[in-house]
Design a protein that fits this description.
two-stranded antiparallel sheet, globular, 13 helices, 10 strands, single chain, 347 residues, 42% helix, Dna Ligase, domain 1, alpha+beta, four-stranded antiparallel sheet
């Protein structure tokens, strides 16, 4: 994974040779969106010719093949990449406003389209929408009424409309910090599930302290295994709880375990996520009346000492004993990068 990240950075540096840095938006670990509106004429007689030049440059410098989607806006470029570029010998696909009827409305499988998963496809099917042509010609007010904002977004996608500007700063509605994990197997045992919840909760608490933040809201996301989801009729549950602003390990994990016990009914678990929101600055420690100030201050200092040990010597040098129990994942997860093996040469 470390090598993958290194190559990603090198490829994006090549992109900066063709347009300004602010007009390159790394969309994911293996995709970037380039706004070439003002620069493509410097490098060729057509956008497709410039796309070919970028492909050749990456190939010559890094030995890697790249696929390119071209469009009049980001959503057209994304659809061109997914639906066409990956399936022709040039590894280039194009969609423009004038080709939307041919390139987008002709799509018969809704799940082939970026942003439409199996569940959304079923919801659209219930509205008698089975392909992109039908989606594009459905009343947009009905889609918004039935699906909310996502209904309007899907309608715009069906017409190849996207008003997003790559260079516009992203507006974050509400800051949050969290972590999630796909478990290595189905977890049935309550003690094992709670061990992982505590591990992730402590990791989120450490991130809050690192950013000098307190969380006023805590949410727990539990994803069931495939078989459990089929039997239960839902994929899991997501519950949130308002709390007194804190970043204390013990307080956060206790609340998380309470949320879990209130909502879990024995289903096999495969995914766990912990998220904190309603963040505020950690300007001081708010003591409560139900515990002695000495114990609260001592626990706060202990958390700070543990954080410092982790920073200086690595996470695995000091772990809670529960992480050594069956089902614990914190030690193994510490060696991963983005959920993947980091590679021995970078350890």
């Amino acid at each position: 994974m470390n090598l993958y990240i290194q190559r990603n950075l090198q490829i994006n540096q090549i992109f900066h040779q063709f347009t300004t840095e602010k007009e390159v938006w790394p969309y994911s670990i293996d995709e970037s969106i380039l706004d070439m509106t003002h620069t493509w004429r410097l490098f060729g007689n057509s956008v497709r010719e410039v796309a070919r030049l970028i492909q050749k440059t990456v190939r010559q410098k890094l030995g890697l093949y790249t696929t390119v989607g071209i469009g009049d806006n980001p959503v057209q470029a994304k659809l061109a990449l997914d639906l066409y570029a990956k399936h022709n010998h040039e590894l280039i696909g194009e969609i423009h406003y004038e080709t939307v009827p041919d390139k987008i409305w002709s799509i018969t499988e809704l799940t082939d389209v970026w942003g439409i998963g199996p569940r959304m496809a079923k919801r659209l099917n219930r509205l008698q929408i089975h392909n992109m042509y039908e989606l594009a010609h459905t009343n947009p007010y009905l889609l918004k009424q039935q699906l909310g904002v996502i209904g309007s977004q899907l309608f715009a996608t069906a017409w190849g409309i996207d008003r997003a500007q790559v260079t516009a700063p992203t507006k974050v509605k509400e800051a949050s910090l969290g972590n999630s994990q796909v478990l290595p197997r189905d977890y049935f045992n309550q003690a094992e599930i709670e061990t992982v919840i505590k591990e992730i909760g402590e990791q989120v608490a450490a991130r809050l302290r690192h950013h000098h933040k307190l969380a006023g809201c805590l949410s727990l996301s539990i994803g069931f295994s495939y078989a459990a989801a089929e039997a239960d009729g839902r994929g899991g549950f997501n519950q949130a709880l308002k709390i007194e602003p804190t970043n204390d390990n013990q307080v956060l994990t206790q609340q998380l375990l309470w949320l879990f016990r209130q909502n879990w009914d024995g289903q096999a678990v495969r995914n766990i996520g912990v998220y904190s929101s309603k963040l505020s600055a950690n300007s001081g420690q708010q003591l409560n009346l139900f515990e002695t100030p000495r114990n609260q201050i001592r626990r706060s200092r202990l958390n700070q000492v543990i954080d410092e040990i982790h920073r200086q010597f690595g996470f695995t040098k000091l772990v809670y004993a529960t992480s050594l129990l069956k089902g614990g994942t914190a030690i193994k997860r510490a060696s991963l990068v983005g959920g993947h093996n980091g590679g021995n040469s970078y350890e």
